[in-house]
Structure formats: C-alpha cells, structure tokens
Amino acid sequence: MFSIAIQQQQYKTYILSDETTGSQLEVVPERGGIITRWRVKGEEILYLDAERFTHPDLSVRGGVPILFPICGNLPDNSYTLNGQQYTLKQHGFARDLPWEVVEQTTKDTAALTLVLRSNEQTKAVYPFDFQLVFTYVLQGNTLEIRQEYQNLSSTQLPFSAGFHPYFLTGDKNQLEFDIPSQEYQDQQTKEVHPFNGNFDFNRDEMDFAFGHITSQSASVIDRNRQFKLTLDADDIFSMLVFWTLKGKEFYCLEPWSAPRNSLNTGEKLTVLEPGTSYKASVRLSASFF
C-alpha cells in the first residue's frame, strides 16, 4: 500500500510511503525540489545537515540536491554566450528555487511530480525558456528520479544536469566502492590518478571526478551498516563525482552529465533544439544484508 502525506514543518514536506516494505521519502518542493530523507526498512540512507537546512540563504548540505543548468562551478562563476557574459553560481539555480507540485499518485507506487519553469530571475543568469519536470518514484527499496528537460526557447538550449546525493555513513573505512572507472581526476590538483577501488580517507577534502566510466551502474557496500547501495543512471550521465569531507558522516557519489565549465568549453554539453525535450532517469536502490 502506498500513501502520500503532507506535513507543515519549516517548509511544506511531502512524505511518500511504501507501507508494505517500510520505505519512506521526504520531499521539500519549495527548497529546491529537494529530497531530504529516504528510509529503507526504517534505516536512514541520506545525510542531512538539519541546522544548515533551516537557513534559506545557505545551500543545503544533505539530501539529494538537483544540479541544473551546470554541474560544479565556472571560473569566476561566469560564462560567455553570444558575446555576453553571465554570472552563474556553483551547480546552478535549480537547487535554490521553489518547485511546483503538479501531480501525485499512490497507484502501484508512490510518485510525486514537480515542475520548475524559467522566469525573470533565471533568465537574468541563463537567458532561456525551459521547463523541468521531475517525478520522484518510491517503490520497495528503490528510489527513481524521472526527469524531462524541455526547451521552450526559439534557440538551442545548452545545459548540463546532475544530482548531489549525500549518503549517510559511520566508518568510511568500512566502505567498498565499485565505480566503473580505472582513473579519476583530483579536482583540487587536477592530477589524474589510477583507481583500484580504494580511497585514503585521511585527507581533509576529497573531490574526485571519474570522467571515463565504462558502465552506467556503480555501487557501494557499507560493511558497518550492512547494506549495499546501487546507483544506476541513464547514458546522459557520462561521469561520476565522489566528494567527502573529513570528520563528516557522509559521502557523495554524484551522477553528472558533463564536467565543470562545460557551458564555456562545450565538453559533453547537452544541447536541445527549440521545442524539443529530453527524458532521463536515475535509480537508487538500497539492500540490507
């Protein structure tokens, strides 16, 4: 049996439940359309800095922030288009703006559909008409994020897109990674290193880009919490980024469609023709053992 409830906390929160399996998902549309909690068999899968979340002027550190129309940051937070310079902050604006709930369903799954439309605020930094339609689908131990990117402009729409999920963990040394790549680039030093499945968690910050993935599926086994997390993403998501901070109980494994600065370089940038759209999906599954 599936249900969707609404709670008025600091923000209106939609709670999707699969009561048969004890899974729950919490979504806050007005705070960037973000997923803030995901529980499987009563266990928290996601990390959330609850104190930081209460401050609207701070970016959310936790849950599953949405990245659009860029992933990562731009040099000096700027890009040039048709000879004009624009300012766009790290990861874009979708994670900061309110989204609108347009559909709910509890038939066969618990699903919530949200929409973000371009407006004067977005066009000041990204001069395009667009519509994003995202549907969060909860069923059993799986969370699916279905996306549709629509170009409503009379010109081509260039963008990159992704997600920045924060996964809760206790002892990072008990994590085992299966990332489909043999190398990564350290985003701080720009050096490329071979990858054999292990990380050194003694560093203060780890920001690694896996740009040459050989599969659209990655997984992490948490021996301490005794569960396996699997991330499956459609082909548009051409890379994975791993990020964590020393002393914090989270790690991020982020599907990105293009690397940092792609709006300037064009590397792996998605370009939609006027009046067209693109559909994609990201699926997360958590299984306990």
From TrEMBL:
CDD domains recorded: Aldose_epim_Slr1438 (cd09025)
GO biological process: carbohydrate metabolic process
Gene Ontology terms for molecular function: carbohydrate binding; isomerase activity
Protein name from the UniProt record: Aldose 1-epimerase
